[in-house]
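User: Can you help me understand a structure? I only have the sequence.
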Amino acid sequence: MLKPSGDVVTPDGTTVASRVHAAVLICVKTAAILGVVQALWPLKEEDYTAW
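Assistant: Let's start by predicting it. Here is the structure, written out as tokens:
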């Protein structure tokens, strides 16, 4: 949600100063999720080969 002041409010209620900060926050959260997935399911050699 975008406030009239230009601040962004995340679904959990956190106010972020700008759209740029909101984009960075989304990227960081995505990287954390992907890191957990990779840690739980290690990649195998066939995951790196071309289709």
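Now, to help you interpret it: The chain has a mean pLDDT of 76. The first helix runs from residue 19 to 40. Let me know which part you'd like to focus on.
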